[in-house]
Amino acid sequence: MSGFRFRLLRPGWLLLVPCALSLLLPEPAPAQTAGSRLVPFRNGSRWGYADQNRRLVLPLAYDEAGPFVQELAWVRQGPLYGYIDGNGNALIPAQYSYAGNFSPTGRATVVLRGDTFAIGPTGHRLTTPAEPEPETDYLEQGDLLRRQGKVGFRFTSGSSTVVPAEYDEVRDLHHSGLLLVRQGNKWGVLNAKGRLVLPLEYDAIRATAANGFLYPIVEQAGRLGYLSHEGKLLTDVKYAAAEPFVADVARVTTSTGQTGYINSKGREFWKD
User: Fold this and answer.
1) Domain count of the chain?
2) Three-state SS for 209?
3) What are 85-107's pLDDT values in tens digits?
4) Are 218 and 188 in contact (CB under 8 A)?
5) For the segment 128-149, what is each residue's pLDDT rounded down to a tens digit?
6) Which keywords are on file for this protein (predicted)?
7) Looking at 165, 182, 202, which one is the last position of a domain?
8) CB neighbours of 58 closer than 8 A, spacing ≥ 6?
9) Euclidean distance between CA atoms 252 and 25, whole angstroms
10) Is the pLDDT confidence value at 175 over 90?
11) Where does a domain end: 162, 179, 202?
């Protein structure tokens, strides 16, 4: 597949404002304790966190913000990164020059005074090595069929469909009976009935084992978008950069160079 541009991309006001201005900001909502229900929200150059209805929950107090994973999210204030919980409490002080998302196993990569290392959820330095990256190129839903230089697929899990050997490449998406298929230099998606649910019009489709191969990223004419659980377009293919989904949100860069997050329904969480 062609290469993808995955960038390392990276929160309201407790202020009385005139009514006209307040209409520009998300409506405040009661604080939640479960950070996993919150989405990083950008208003202009400031970041906070909103609920799934885009109502502001944690104020626009940050210069950058990341998703909640393991009930922790990285935030940046000035040049330094730290971690907060779902109530906005600073659990790990802002002291790092870089801080990444926590993994499902409770590891996050940080940089402190030029030293790169992993920390746990309490901020303690980890000395055990990370687990190996999961395998991605394997078959789970069936077997490949080959005939005269072309590739098909025989489903053995959840379906008995046989996909004729008429593709140049077939990749198992490992869920929902979906396959990524290529003819020539164009990619599409087949379902378990062997029907194209996404036409063969895309330059690349990429899924990652890190999030269970969900919400694959598609590329077309230099722009990026996402696929749904059904293999159809979740978003328009319009972003200049797109990162894999993490905890049901994904970070994107717009065509104007602004960053923000979308949720698993494709809804955008920012105001410029």
Assistant:
1) 2
2) helix
3) 999 999 999 999 999 999 988 99
4) no
5) 988 876 655 678 899 999 999 9
6) Signal
7) 202
8) 11, 31, 38, 48, 49, 84, 87, 88
9) 21
10) no
11) 202
